[in-house]
Structure formats: C-alpha cells, structure tokens
Design a protein that fits this description.
With 387 residues, this protein is an alpha/beta fold. 50% of the residues lie in helices and 11% in strands. The chain is built from 16 helices and seven strands. The strands form two sheets. It has a five-stranded parallel β-sheet, sandwiched between helices. α9 crosses α10, α11 packs across α12 and α13 packs across α14. The chain is globular. The mean pLDDT is 91. Bound molecules: adenosine-5'-diphosphate (ADP) and magnesium ion.
C-alpha cells in the first residue's frame, strides 16, 4: 500500500487541532472557578434583561485572573437574552480603554454598532452630542476594560464624567489595580462613581491546572499532554508568575511548539524550556518602550555601572555624541527611578569606610544579560562604541 504521501505531513508536526482555543481572543463556553464572580456580575446586570439600567460595577484583581474573559462571556449571554426577549432599549458597548476620551467614546459607539461618532477632529463635547443623539433615552452599558491605564493617561477623564452624568447609564469598570479612586483627579467623578465591587483573586495551582486541562482538551490532539504534565505546567506557571492564567496558557502554547518541533509530546523538558523562554522575554520587554534619554542611561549602567553622577556623565556623553542635548541632575533621578521601577536596574549600597556613611551604585539587573542589553540599545539608538 503506497497511500497518500502527504497524509503524514498533515498528521505529524503540530500538536494543535484547534489553535484558536489557545488564542487570547478565545472565549470558553464555561469559566472555571469563577462561579461566585459570575453570580455577582450577572445578578447586578440582570435589570438590563428587563430594559432597565443596572447598578455600576468595578471588577478588579491582578492581571490574568479572568476579568476580561468573564465579562465578555457574560455579555454574550446578556446580549442573547435581550435579543430573545426583544429588549431593544439596551445598548451594550465594550472597549479596552486607552488613549484620550474622544477616541474611547468613538470606540464605545462603534462597539454598540452606532455609526457617525468621529474619533478626532472635533471637540469631545461635539462627539458626545452625536453619541447622545444616537443613543436617545436608551439604556447604555459601557464596559471600560483596563480603565486604570486610561486614568493614568487622563486622570480627569471627561468620558467617565459624561457617562456617569448620563441618565440610564451603567459603567462597568475593569482594573488591574484595587483602588481606582486614587487614580481619579476629578472630585465630581469620585462622588458619582460608587460601584459594586467584584474581586478576582489569583488562581491556585490546582485551579490553573483545571483551566489548562479544559483548554488542552479543545486545543490539542488526544495524547498530546498527560494529566501529570498539565499539573506540572500549572506548578511551573505558579512558581514563575503566580496565579496568572494568561502566563499558564502562554506556557502551554510555547511548550507545545517546542515539543512539536522535536516530534514529541509535551513533557517536562519542553515546559521548562518554554518557561525559560517566556521569562527571559518578559524581562527584556521594557527595553522596547524606552525613550532615547532612558536608553542612554541604561546603556551607561550596562557599560559601566557606578554612582548616579557617574551614570549621568556617561549618559550625557552618549546623548551628545548622537547630537542630543545633555540632561540635568533632576532628570537623572527621575530616569533612574523609572528604570528601577521597570526592573531594569538596581541600586546597591556601597560603604565609604567606617563611619563615613555610604552611597548608592546603580547596576544592571543581574538577571539581564549585559551584552544583550548593550547590543539591543546600540542597535536601536545608534549610540557609538566606547573608545
Ligand atoms: P485579566 O483580564 O484578568 O487580565 P483575562 O480574562 O484576560 O485576565 O484572562 C487571561 C487568560 O486566561 C485568557 O486567555 C482567558 O481566556 C484565560 N482565563 C482566565 N480565567 C479563566 C477561566 N476561569 N476559565 C478559562 N479560561 C480563563
Ligand atoms: Mg483584562
């Protein structure tokens, strides 16, 4: 039997039979270990099924705890219910809030399938007037995901103020930080926003395992991963990133790619390698978001390290050599503080001898490779080699 020579190409290699099941956009039919949160959110939003505006909500908890997937899943059910019951007076909008109020409002309108709200070129008030005409006296449920990022950008969010002032409007805010009131600079917003709070705790390792298992059953062909390895994957994810389901799912995905390349099932080695890969990728990520001044400081730290004033001198040297203005002492403190906050540099004590106190030296985070950081910065910013 010769058979079709290409069959084997389709049946070996990737362990995936449904890659969408591991994608970040995938919304599972059923959410595991979020029964309590689902109950609270659904009961709060339930007036919408009868055409009434629900009480506002704040979903909060660390990254990867299922806030986004939970609200998206519940909104699907809510939309279906409204359709079934012919409730036409409720408009539901979901956005990942970022940038300015005006573009967020345009995005919100678009997600409610309303046309004609411009995202730029007019004042916010004009934009709001158009939105208001289109929505009339309908109930609006506005889900603002990652609202903390929006507020960092715009602590006096005019969008939030207008939404909270509109009758028949429910704001569902989602934040990775517990207290968003601390991020809001407008008293009028604070006094108008008193949501019901729903907390999303980190998952435990056994819960992560259940989530991975449900996803693996959809995503992989049978036998691609054993129950024991699912437990191992959950434990490794837990040790690296805590109860973050996103990391655990990424780990499973990368491990499956590594295993497929070697033509094996997902085993300890592929999971460990995937973890190494993901961890190193995460610590280098902040490098991509630096500006030139920050990059010059980081290069100075990576090249030499030393006291903050030595770093400043060297960084200014790089800036001058690439045709930029040097920066002041005040900028120095802010920039080095920012680099430390992003885990790129660390401060270490240096004693000056008995009774003479101590100073700080700034060094590169020891988990980062010096040569890789130097190469990345030189390549991106064109800083010259040292003589
Ligand atoms: P958050 O918004 O809290 O940062 P997400 O909702 O984006 O977290 O969840 C991160 C990833 O983990 C997503 O891919 C999501 O589908 C998955 N996930 C989180 N919680 C669950 C759960 N309870 N059941 C199934 N998948 C989950
Ligand atoms: Mg989210």
């Amino acid at each position: 039997m010769g058979g079709d020579p290409y069959v084997s190409l389709f049946c070996s290699g990737s362990l995936l039979i449904d890659p969408t099941a591991l994608s970040p956009q995938y919304i599972p039919e059923e959410l595991l270990h979020r029964e309590e949160q689902c109950k609270q959110i659904a009961s709060t939003l339930s007036p919408a099924v009868y055409g009434n505006a629900p009480y506002p909500l704040l979903l909060f908890g660390p990254a990867g705890t299922g806030k986004t997937v939970t609200i998206r899943r519940l909104l699907l059910t809510l939309e279906n219910l409204c359709k079934e019951r012919k409730v036409n007076s409720v408009l539901i909008g979901y956005i990942v809030a970022s940038g300015r109020s005006i573009s967020n409002l345009a995005a919100l309108a678009a997600s409610m399938r309303l046309r004609g709200v411009p995202r730029a070129g007019v004042s916010f008030e004009e934009c709001w007037r158009i939105f208001n005409d289109l929505t009339g006296n309908k109930v609006v449920i506005a889900v603002l995901d990652e609202i903390d990022k929006m507020l960092v950008h715009e602590p006096e969010s005019i969008l939030l103020y207008y939404l909270l002032s509109r009758p028949n409007t429910s704001v569902v805010a989602i934040s990775n930080q517990g207290e968003i009131t601390g991020l809001i600079k407008d008293e009028r917003i604070i006094s108008r926003f008193n949501p019901k709070r729903v907390f999303f705790p980190e998952y435990t390792a056994p819960q992560l395992k259940d989530i991975l298992k449900a996803r693996a059953e959809k995503a992989f062909r049978p036998g691609a991963i054993t129950d024991e390895m699912l437990g191992y994957c959950a434990a490794v994810a837990m040790a690296s990133k805590g109860g973050d389901a996103r990391y655990a799912l990424d780990l499973l995905m990368v491990a499956s790619e590594i295993a497929a390349k070697r033509g094996s099932c997902i085993d300890k080695t592929s999971i460990d390698e995937a973890n190494e890969f993901l961890r190193s990728e995460t610590i280098y990520r902040p490098l991509e978001e630096l500006n030139r001044v920050e990059a010059a400081f980081l290069l100075a730290v990576a090249e030499r390290g030393g006291s903050p004033s030595e770093i400043l001198a060297l960084a200014n040297d790089y800036l001058l050599k690439t045709g930029r203005e040097p920066v002041s002492n005040r900028t120095r403190a802010r920039v080095l503080g920012g680099l430390a906050a992003r885990g790129l540099v660390e401060y270490v004590h240096r004693g000056l001898g008995r009774g003479r106190g101590f100073v700080y030296d700034v060094v590169l985070n020891p988990r980062l490779s010096k040569s890789r950081v130097i190469a990345m910065l030189r390549q991106t910013w064109g800083f010259p080699e040292e003589e």
